[in-house]
Amino acid sequence: MPLVHECNHLGCHAVIPATEKFCQRHKQEEQQRYAKYSHQLKLQSDKQYNLNRRDQEANAFYHSARWTRTRDYIKQRDYMTDSVDGRVLNDHDYIVDHVVPRRLSDDPYDINNLWLLSRSHHNTKTRYEEQMSDYKLKHMTRNDWRNLIMKSGDTNG
């Protein structure tokens, strides 16, 4: 006889397999609640980062109308796909990134220096950037970054 238990939703007594937490009726409800909660935490975290850790020049740049238009263009141009592994991204898992860091580029709005990355790939790239000289960073290409990120084992995004 398979192991079963009651749905974890308060007041629901539906009997379900032990491998599940919620019955079909409450599973989607719980997923939506969790997604909303985690999105709110992320917004809160981003706000704290912008206030306390990001330099004010960068903060002003990334909140400008021109950057917003440029970012939206890159999202459309790249069809919301990760530039490293080609995975389709959702609205909560993408970052429009400068191939050559903004502080080192002549034109921070140059669309040829921008690409779409998953948050995970962006974080991996940032860890590498922190270890590189400005000279090396200025000469890194998209292919160089792709190879480095893929080599790091971060292929899931």
Can you tell me about this structure?
This protein is mainly alpha-helical and 157 residues long. Helices cover 48% and strands 9% of the residues. It contains six helices and four strands. It has helices spanning 24-52, 56-62, 65-77, 119-129, 134-138, 142-151, and strands at residues 4-6, 15-17, 95-98, 114-117. The strands form two sheets. A two-stranded antiparallel sheet has the order 1-2. The protein has a two-stranded antiparallel ribbon with strand order 3-4. The longest helix is centred in the N-terminal third of the chain and has 29 residues, at 24-52. It is elongated, with a radius of gyration of 21 Å. The relative contact order is 0.09. The model has no long low-confidence stretch (mean pLDDT 90).
Concise structural overview:
With 157 residues, the protein is mostly helical. The chain is built from six helices and four strands.
List keywords for this structure.
48% helix; two-stranded antiparallel sheet; two-stranded antiparallel ribbon; mainly alpha; 157 residues
The 3D shape can be described as: elongated
> Major beta sheet, specifics?
2 strands, antiparallel
Task: Report the end-to-end length measured between terminal Cα atoms.
Answer: 39 Å
Rg over C-alpha atoms, rounded to the nearest angstrom: 21 Å
Helix content: 40-55%
> How many individual β-strands?
4
Spatial order of the strands in the main sheet?
A: 1-2
Mean pLDDT score: 90
Could you name the ranges where pLDDT drops below 50 across 5 or more consecutive residues? none
Q: How many helices in DSSP terms?
A: 6
